[in-house]
Amino acid sequence: MSADLTELYQQVILDHNRRPRNRGRLPTANRVAHGDNPSCGDQCDVFLQLDGDRIKDISFDGSGCAISQASASLMTTQLKGKTAAEAEALYKKFHEIVTTGKEPEEISDLAAFAGVHTFPARIKCATLGWHAALNALKGDAAPATTESHTD
Fold first, then answer.
1. Is there a contact between 71 and 125 (Cβ–Cβ < 8 Å)?
2. Which of 26, 41, 120, 150 could form a Cys-Cys staple with 47, CB 3.0–4.6 A?
3. Are 55 and 87 in contact (CB under 8 A)?
4. Overall domain count for the chain
Protein backbone atom coordinates (compact mmCIF):
# COMPACT_ATOMS: atom_id res chain seq x y z
CA MET A 1 0.00 0.00 0.00
CA SER A 2 1.38 3.39 -0.94
CA ALA A 3 2.08 6.04 1.67
CA ASP A 4 -0.54 8.30 0.06
CA LEU A 5 -3.20 5.59 0.30
CA THR A 6 -2.28 4.86 3.92
CA GLU A 7 -2.64 8.57 4.72
CA LEU A 8 -6.00 8.72 2.95
CA TYR A 9 -7.25 5.70 4.93
CA GLN A 10 -6.08 7.24 8.19
CA GLN A 11 -7.95 10.43 7.29
CA VAL A 12 -11.17 8.48 6.66
CA ILE A 13 -10.94 6.86 10.10
CA LEU A 14 -10.07 10.13 11.83
CA ASP A 15 -12.89 11.95 10.06
CA HIS A 16 -15.50 9.36 11.11
CA ASN A 17 -14.16 9.44 14.67
CA ARG A 18 -14.20 13.24 14.92
CA ARG A 19 -17.50 13.73 13.08
CA PRO A 20 -19.44 10.50 13.45
CA ARG A 21 -22.33 10.01 11.08
CA ASN A 22 -25.73 8.88 12.37
CA ARG A 23 -24.74 9.13 16.03
CA GLY A 24 -27.44 9.19 18.67
CA ARG A 25 -30.63 7.36 19.50
CA LEU A 26 -32.98 6.87 16.58
CA PRO A 27 -36.48 7.71 17.86
CA THR A 28 -38.15 5.69 15.09
CA ALA A 29 -36.10 2.53 15.75
CA ASN A 30 -38.03 -0.72 15.87
CA ARG A 31 -34.93 -2.81 16.58
CA VAL A 32 -32.12 -2.11 19.04
CA ALA A 33 -29.05 -4.11 19.97
CA HIS A 34 -26.16 -3.54 22.34
CA GLY A 35 -22.54 -4.48 21.70
CA ASP A 36 -19.83 -4.90 24.31
CA ASN A 37 -16.09 -5.40 23.91
CA PRO A 38 -14.93 -6.33 27.43
CA SER A 39 -11.29 -6.61 26.38
CA CYS A 40 -11.01 -2.86 25.81
CA GLY A 41 -14.25 -1.39 27.14
CA ASP A 42 -15.91 -0.37 23.86
CA GLN A 43 -19.71 -0.10 24.01
CA CYS A 44 -22.03 0.32 21.05
CA ASP A 45 -25.80 0.49 20.75
CA VAL A 46 -27.27 0.18 17.26
CA PHE A 47 -30.74 1.45 16.42
CA LEU A 48 -32.51 0.23 13.30
CA GLN A 49 -35.72 1.27 11.66
CA LEU A 50 -36.68 -1.66 9.48
CA ASP A 51 -39.20 -1.46 6.71
CA GLY A 52 -39.86 -5.12 6.04
CA ASP A 53 -36.42 -6.58 5.37
CA ARG A 54 -34.78 -3.25 4.51
CA ILE A 55 -32.86 -0.90 6.81
CA LYS A 56 -34.80 2.32 6.34
CA ASP A 57 -32.70 4.17 8.92
CA ILE A 58 -29.84 3.36 11.28
CA SER A 59 -27.89 5.07 14.02
CA PHE A 60 -25.46 4.18 16.78
CA ASP A 61 -24.40 5.49 20.14
CA GLY A 62 -21.67 4.42 22.49
CA SER A 63 -18.14 4.98 23.60
CA GLY A 64 -14.76 3.52 22.92
CA CYS A 65 -11.61 3.85 20.92
CA ALA A 66 -11.30 5.68 17.62
CA ILE A 67 -11.40 2.42 15.64
CA SER A 68 -14.68 1.24 17.18
CA GLN A 69 -16.39 4.61 16.89
CA ALA A 70 -15.20 5.31 13.35
CA SER A 71 -16.17 1.81 12.26
CA ALA A 72 -19.68 2.14 13.72
CA SER A 73 -20.07 5.52 12.00
CA LEU A 74 -18.93 4.19 8.64
CA MET A 75 -21.09 1.08 9.10
CA THR A 76 -24.23 3.22 9.42
CA THR A 77 -23.47 4.97 6.13
CA GLN A 78 -22.91 1.65 4.40
CA LEU A 79 -25.94 -0.23 5.77
CA LYS A 80 -28.66 2.40 5.32
CA GLY A 81 -31.03 1.21 2.61
CA LYS A 82 -29.68 -2.35 2.53
CA THR A 83 -31.66 -5.54 3.02
CA ALA A 84 -30.69 -7.96 5.78
CA ALA A 85 -28.98 -10.23 3.22
CA GLU A 86 -27.05 -7.29 1.74
CA ALA A 87 -25.99 -6.18 5.24
CA GLU A 88 -24.72 -9.68 6.05
CA ALA A 89 -22.76 -9.80 2.78
CA LEU A 90 -21.27 -6.37 3.46
CA TYR A 91 -20.22 -7.49 6.95
CA LYS A 92 -18.47 -10.54 5.46
CA LYS A 93 -16.57 -8.26 3.08
CA PHE A 94 -15.64 -5.92 5.95
CA HIS A 95 -14.57 -8.87 8.12
CA GLU A 96 -12.28 -10.10 5.36
CA ILE A 97 -10.73 -6.63 5.07
CA VAL A 98 -10.01 -6.28 8.80
CA THR A 99 -8.75 -9.84 9.29
CA THR A 100 -6.59 -10.18 6.17
CA GLY A 101 -5.76 -6.62 5.10
CA LYS A 102 -7.01 -7.47 1.62
CA GLU A 103 -8.50 -4.38 0.07
CA PRO A 104 -11.73 -4.72 -1.88
CA GLU A 105 -11.51 -4.54 -5.66
CA GLU A 106 -13.91 -1.60 -5.81
CA ILE A 107 -12.99 1.68 -4.20
CA SER A 108 -14.69 1.85 -0.82
CA ASP A 109 -14.24 3.62 2.49
CA LEU A 110 -14.35 0.16 4.08
CA ALA A 111 -10.79 -0.30 2.80
CA ALA A 112 -9.69 2.31 5.35
CA PHE A 113 -9.80 -0.49 7.92
CA ALA A 114 -7.40 -2.80 6.03
CA GLY A 115 -4.54 -1.86 8.36
CA VAL A 116 -6.44 -3.17 11.38
CA HIS A 117 -5.36 -6.74 10.55
CA THR A 118 -1.83 -5.92 11.75
CA PHE A 119 -3.26 -5.31 15.24
CA PRO A 120 -5.35 -8.45 15.99
CA ALA A 121 -6.76 -7.08 19.25
CA ARG A 122 -8.23 -4.13 17.31
CA ILE A 123 -10.27 -6.39 15.02
CA LYS A 124 -12.80 -6.73 17.84
CA CYS A 125 -12.97 -2.95 18.08
CA ALA A 126 -13.63 -2.60 14.37
CA THR A 127 -16.34 -5.28 14.22
CA LEU A 128 -18.26 -4.48 17.43
CA GLY A 129 -20.86 -2.19 15.87
CA TRP A 130 -21.33 -4.61 12.99
CA HIS A 131 -22.09 -7.48 15.39
CA ALA A 132 -24.63 -5.31 17.20
CA ALA A 133 -26.24 -4.33 13.88
CA LEU A 134 -26.50 -7.96 12.79
CA ASN A 135 -28.08 -8.87 16.14
CA ALA A 136 -30.58 -6.04 15.71
CA LEU A 137 -31.44 -7.29 12.22
CA LYS A 138 -32.09 -10.77 13.60
CA GLY A 139 -34.14 -9.39 16.47
CA ASP A 140 -31.66 -10.94 18.90
CA ALA A 141 -32.05 -9.21 22.27
CA ALA A 142 -28.84 -10.70 23.72
CA PRO A 143 -25.94 -8.25 23.80
CA ALA A 144 -23.38 -8.80 21.06
CA THR A 145 -20.04 -9.39 22.70
CA THR A 146 -16.73 -9.68 20.93
CA GLU A 147 -15.89 -12.55 23.26
CA SER A 148 -18.51 -14.76 21.60
CA HIS A 149 -17.24 -14.14 18.04
CA THR A 150 -14.17 -15.50 16.30
CA ASP A 151 -12.84 -12.05 15.35
1. yes
2. 26
3. yes
4. 1
Q: Which residues of the chain have pLDDT under 50?
A: none
149 assigned to some structural domain: no
Cβ-proximal residues to 52 (8 Å cutoff; 6+ apart), any chain: none
106 backbone dihedrals φ, ψ, rounded to 5°: -85, 150
CATH number at residue 37: 3.90.1010.10
Domain residue limits at 53: 3-141
Which residues are CB-contacts of 42 (< 8 A; sequence separation ≥ 6)? Answer: 35, 36, 62, 63, 64, 65, 68, 124, 125, 128
Q: Identify the burial level of 99 via C-beta atoms within 10 angstroms of its C-beta, where 0-12 means exposed, 13-18 middle and 19 or more buried.
A: middle
Q: What is the pLDDT of residues 13-36, one digit of tens each?
A: 999 999 999 999 999 999 999 999
Q: pTM of the entire structure?
A: 0.92
